[in-house]
Design a protein that fits this description.
With about 325 residues, this protein is of the alpha/beta class. It contains 13 helices and 14 strands.
Length: about 325
């Protein structure tokens, strides 16, 4: 493995350490709950969901976090301001894990941020994300909040290469008058995580992975990806899944479903091997498969950097939890 020349930041978010050199801290795994068409959601706009099923998947993620030594976060994805408040309240009651405030609706994220400020949960919150679509209102709410941690999304619609992503972080790439790294710091974000933005296979995902190395080398901040979105959007894989599917008692099954699942789950080790710090691994119910897989990758990296660079893992780590 390798180490970065630049000092690497390690952030403490409600007891979860994220960042550092490869092998220094375990990969933080973030499972998504209440995403679009999630089986446990009954009314996405009103925030009505199966509480027992939601509690079960949250507890299962916590269980596998304890089992492997990989810290976890809940990626709370909400469709409306009303749903966001209800879902944050529920998730933070069930688990002490940090959580991501996430939505495609800016008003929902703003409502979530205001809510966590009001009820004193800001120290556990990570805003996802500061990006080229953020309005002045959204940035102002972030600045006025007590928020410390946020993800900056290095999606440059004009240039998906590593250089394009770094240009967005450094200069704003013509969208803002300053780079997203400096913009985030100016509005009070002190725990800065970067998602280089996952693109589909064949349309730039390679640069997404490579960008993580460049971002950590240049800024020393924590980096991670939602890499599972790449195989999910892969045309070849979707065609293969359809062509090799059979209808069984549990739904569509067969070789196509198996191959799709292997690619989906397996993709989560790619950012880890590339030296990144966290993974947005997708549906939270995949925790029992993702955590042991990523834990294994963390062991391999930690063993290599301990032997070759005298890098000792910090605190609880898959190397000690799963290494025997």
């Amino acid at each position: 493995m390798f180490l970065f020349d630049r000092k690497q930041e390690i952030y403490d978010i409600a007891g979860v350490k994220v960042g550092g050199q490869p092998g220094e801290t375990p990969t933080v795994l973030c499972g998504t709950i209440f995403y679009a068409k999630h089986y446990l959601v009954e009314d996405a706009d009103k925030g009505i969901f199966d509480k027992k099923a939601a509690e079960d998947v949250i507890n299962k993620q916590d269980e596998f976090s304890d089992l492997t030594g990989n810290p976890c976060m809940m990626q709370i994805f909400s469709e409306s301001p009303e749903a966001m408040e209800k879902e944050i309240a529920f998730c933070t009651e069930v688990s002490d894990s940090p959580f991501l405030i996430d939505s495609t609706v800016a008003e929902a994220k703003i409502a979530g941020l205001k809510y966590v400020d009001e009820v004193g949960l800001t120290d556990r919150a990570v805003y996802n994300s500061i990006n080229v679509s953020c309005s002045e209102e959204e940035l102002k709410v972030i600045e006025e909040s007590k928020l410390e941690a946020a993800i900056i999304l290095a999606f440059n619609p004009k240039d998906s290469t590593v250089a394009g992503k770094i240009d967005l972080l450094e200069t704003g790439a013509g969208t803002f008058d300053k780079g997203l790294v400096y913009l985030a710091r100016d509005i009070g974000v002190t725990k800065l995580l970067c998602d280089p933005a996952t693109l589909p296979i064949g349309a730039g995902v390679g640069s997404s992975v490579a960008s993580g190395f460049a971002v950590k080398s240049k800024y020393g901040i924590a980096v991670g990806l939602g890499i599972h979105n790449a195989p999910s959007a892969w045309t070849w894989l979707k065609t293969f899944r359809k062509e090799h599917a059979t209808k069984g008692p549990g739904g569509w099954e067969g070789l196509g479903a198996d191959v799709f699942r292997i690619c989906d789950i397996g993709s989560n080790v790619i950012p880890v091997i590339a030296g990144q710090d966290f993974v947005l691994y997708g549906p939270i119910e995949n925790a029992p498969l993702v955590f042991p897989l990523v834990g294994m990758a963390d062991i391999i990296i930690a063993e290599a950097n301990k032997a070759e660079h005298d890098m000792e893992p910090k605190g609880e780590h898959p190397l000690t939890k799963m290494g025997a």
